[in-house]
Known about the structure:
heterodimer; A: alpha+beta; Outer Surface Protein A, domain 3; 4 strands; B: 7% strand
Amino acid sequence: MATREAQQFPRARVEGLVVQELTDEVLVYDRKSHHAHCLNRTAALVWRQCDGRTSIKQMRLRLAGELKAPVGEEALSSALEQLGKARLLLETKADPGRERVMSRRELAREMGLATALTVPLVTTILVPAALAAASCASLSCAGANPCLATPGCTCSSGNCVPV
Amino acid sequence: MRVRRSESPAELIAAVLTRSWQRDPPELEVNEAGLAAVTRKLIRSGAGALAWWRVRHSPLGRTPTGSELRQAYRFQTLQAAVKEQELREVYSLLREAGVEPLLLKGWAVARLYPEPGLRQYLDHDLCVGPEEYLIAKAVKDGPAGINYPIDLHRGSGKLDDLEPGELYERAQTVRVGDVVVRIPCPEDHLRILCLHLMRHGACRPLWLCDVAVALESRSADFDWGRCLSDNRRRADAVACTIGLAHHLLGARVDGTPVARRAERLPSWLLPGVLKQWEAPYPPLRFYAPMATYLENPKGVFRGLRNRWPDPIEATASVNGPLNELPRLPFQLANCALRTARFLGTFVR
């Protein structure tokens, strides 16, 4: 019952998240899972609406007003699904009737070119490739041993190895 | 977009980072191939976000290389937020133990950039008075502090000549969210940034951007006497570092007492920095401690070769003059000093 209600009145997770708002996207770092995500403008708007009191129907209307473009049910469902998969919502459970998330291309095709710009997108921010080749690439490098990769940095994460 | 003639990677790095610390940097006159050639090094040395800042409004921003830099910008932006939260927690821990640290570099200089994520830092350089050092170290090494990347300095350590008491007296307080932290006054911080850069051979381009942003963000009542200090050689090192920021990154020196010196640097200094920027980052000598070669002598000569000091670091390490004399004696002196320290670890 609680899960069904959560799906109808989705609620954004707050605890353990570090959020940075940029001009046209929102960056989120999950301190528990150590994953980082980038929400495009539409996804960020959806996430902000997830206050546990706003129904999905109300969200659609508000979003259409913000984006000045119609927001289809599929688009909103896709956004909520992506946010749920990224663990940015509380008490979410995959809709058993929904087999997979539509791809952005599929969504855009369904919604039409005019509304393609409003397609919500939650992407994982990967460590830049140039950093991935080095150690000390985690967002929260922490520790006490001298880090061989970065002069002056102290890290005892156990991940610091010579490159 | 004008395409410049072919340049070395170091010159390309300098071109990309020129005035990158400004809110609206000038248009970049580098083509995508040139930018791509130095992107990896820029990102690895923590300057990826600054490079994105430079190209974000240009056609370069929409290229695959631009996308890579934008990713670095996103990563660094989030990292800065995480680090700021971390800093607040570190301060709370130390204050609970009765320690009042002074924050150097890191966040203290990142705050001068248009966005804090533009200046990457991984640890927190904290100075504490000699009488507080052991307490601070206990907190740092204890269960609560062990997971924080704290670089603890007794007084100003190797970073400056000033007595810790003087640094504290002249310090300013700023807010990190709801936590007040103490940082050096702008004059002391600029000097510390310059000396730190020289001591590490100017190997990291980002540090020169720090000097530039600290220089250009100074207020009208900036006290140059306080910044340059009474030590003639230190003052000259500061002036020459500012000169490097001027020549390589376009930092403005007009109207400063160091302008003349900044225009007339020792002939080996600029080439020395460019050579450092051509080399891999991080520097090769950080790849394995020398002690590892005791058990595995193979590679010891490569290890020694990697540790041959560059002329900038060598000069700074022995507080040598920045003149036209050959640098070899200073490099030999640096080697002797480090060998003595290395052997000293076995005696202890």
